[in-house]
Amino acid sequence: MSLNERLREYKVRQESGEVPPITPAHLEVIYREAHALAASGAEDRVLKAGAPFPSFEMPDENGDVVSSADLLSRGPLAVVFYRGAWCDYCNFELEALEEVYPRIRELGADLVAVSPVTMPNLRAAIRRNKLSYRILSDRGNAYAARFNLTYTMNQDLLDVWGSFGMNFSQINGDDSNRMTMPGVFLADTDGVLRFASAYARHWERTEPADLLAAIERLGPDRSARS
Length: 226
Fold this sequence. Notes:
The termini are far apart. Helices cover 42% and strands 17% of the residues. The protein is globular and about 50 Å long. The protein has 10 helices and 9 strands. It has helices at 3-15, 24-39, 68-72, 88-106, 119-129, 142-145, 155-163, 168-171, 208-218, 220-223; strands spanning 57-59, 65-67, 77-81, 110-115, 134-137, 150-152, 178-180, 183-187, 193-198. Helix 1 (3-15) runs antiparallel to helix 4 (88-106) and helix 4 runs parallel beside helix 9. By secondary structure, it is of the alpha/beta class.
């Protein structure tokens, strides 16, 4: 079963009331805001393949600084933006990427996931999804903004999440109420984006198989540097 087939199955379960405490009234707000984000052209504004890859230095779940320059010196790099372990759709995606991570490494590439959440929440995602790849902390969505992935959650949406006891000033460690669209990007060793995919509707995600195909298309001359 593909990732998006799993997500569609889960979405049906949510809508049928099998996933409490979410209700039809909650979903109406969540869907309305996601559709509005999509209608705004948010996906069209995201960085495209062929653009320079934005470099980074960000801490991982242990507080160790990870550099894109260091990773790209070894081979292509995939960067996956996700909202947080509080998002079930994100957890499905992180698990699916873990399934293909050994193949990504076999191809000479690497993968990091990026989220605006605090360090304890990064570690929670790793434990929950049994991840072997690194997760990086993007405080305030500063790095996601360089891909044009960010947006501000309105009060209706914040009220829905708040009804579940979710406080984003605590989850993300800032008061901006900024969020990232989920996205997957692949840079070659020359620092050029070769694959770019993002979704305004968070229940839709990039298939890991499509990322693998993009890595394979780079060929052995770009799979790693000696």
